């Protein structure tokens, strides 16, 4: 069986991203392995610590930077995370100063909201209805 | 205070969902059946029960559910049961007890479904979790 073990998101600053993904979003750091001038830096959900790891990948490739900027300008999320209670998370994150480009709204069989991860990307939070 | 202008993404979302073929009541009907499965997934559930909860014919129900959620109600129910089984096995509950507690009536059917979803037999899953704890 093939499983998804790691997926990645490009970030401008790995330390800043680690702070946002752990302190603000609530993930847990799993791997931090020095690799040249950067690190292999991954976080996981506290609920699934042996599940899919999110690699906070340093933005070190110019065409990727252009792609990232184009997505951001269009408001298109780089990826989506699942939540059980979107309204609760929205309030919690707003209280922590997180900015949303889309407040919670229904979209078919899901409810979504889109937040700015402060590292160059939008992230969609999604609650299945 | 003026509201923020909508992003391209938000406008596209609105455009796409305006074109959706589902009527609003269909979403509510299907959600009712999902809530029913969440509540009663440890008991015997027949497709007839689910279609009745959604006020649809069996055929229309399965087709609509699959188009909305990308999997059949049967697979959705299986995933709910296996998620619950993983929790029970991690708590050290026996495989036979877990099988019945999550709504399966046959151990081989449970083991096959579990392996299909997790890649491991219930025994291997429980063993791996216990060795991780040690």
From TrEMBL, chain A:
Annotated coiled-coil positions are none
Give the matching InterPro entries. Glyas_Bleomycin-R_OHBP_Dase (IPR029068), Glyas_Fos-R_dOase_dom (IPR004360), VOC_core (IPR037523)
Which SUPFAM superfamilies does this one have?
Glyoxalase/Bleomycin resistance protein/Dihydroxybiphenyl dioxygenase
Name the Pfam families for this protein: Glyoxalase
Q: Which residues form the VOC domain?
A: 3-128
Top-rank taxon, per record: Bacteria
Matching entries from PANTHER family are given as: GLYOXALASE/BLEOMYCIN RESISTANCE PROTEIN/DIOXYGENASE (PTHR36437), GLYOXALASE_BLEOMYCIN RESISTANCE PROTEIN_DIOXYGENASE (PTHR36437:SF2)
**What is this protein's name?**
VOC family protein
Question: What species was this sequence derived from?
Answer: Ferrimonas pelagia
Instruction: Specify the taxonomic lineage.
Output: Bacteria, Pseudomonadati, Pseudomonadota, Gammaproteobacteria, Alteromonadales
């Amino acid at each position: 069986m093939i499983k998804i073990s790691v997926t990645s998101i490009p970030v401008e600053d790995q330390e800043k991203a680690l702070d946002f993904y752990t302190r603000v979003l609530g993930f847990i750091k799993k791997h931090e392995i020095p690799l040249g001038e950067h690190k292999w830096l991954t976080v996981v959900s506290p609920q699934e610590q042996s599940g899919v790891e999110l690699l906070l990948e340093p933005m070190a490739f110019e065409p990727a930077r252009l792609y990232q900027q184009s997505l951001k300008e269009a408001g298109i999320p780089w990826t989506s995370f699942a939540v059980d209670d979107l309204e609760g998370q929205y309030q919690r994150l707003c209280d922590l100063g997180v900015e949303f480009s889309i407040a919670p709204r229904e979209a078919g069989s899901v409810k979504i909201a889109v937040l700015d991860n402060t590292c160059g990307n939008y992230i969609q939070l999604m609650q299945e209805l | 205070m003026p509201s923020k202008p909508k992003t391209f993404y938000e406008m596209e979302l609105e455009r796409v969902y305006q074109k959706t073929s589902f009527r609003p009541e269909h979403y509510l009907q299907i959600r009712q059946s999902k809530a029913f499965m969440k509540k009663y997934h440890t008991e015997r559930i027949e497709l007839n029960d689910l279609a009745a909860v959604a006020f649809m014919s069996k055929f229309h129900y399965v087709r609509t559910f699959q188009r909305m959620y990308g999997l059949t109600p049967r697979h959705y129910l299986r995933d709910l049961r296996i998620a619950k089984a993983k929790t029970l096995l991690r708590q050290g509950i026996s495989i036979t007890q877990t099988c019945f507690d999550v709504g399966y009536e046959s151990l081989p059917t449970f083991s096959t479904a579990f392996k299909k979803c997790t890649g491991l037999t219930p025994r291997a899953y429980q063993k791996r979790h216990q060795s991780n704890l040690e």
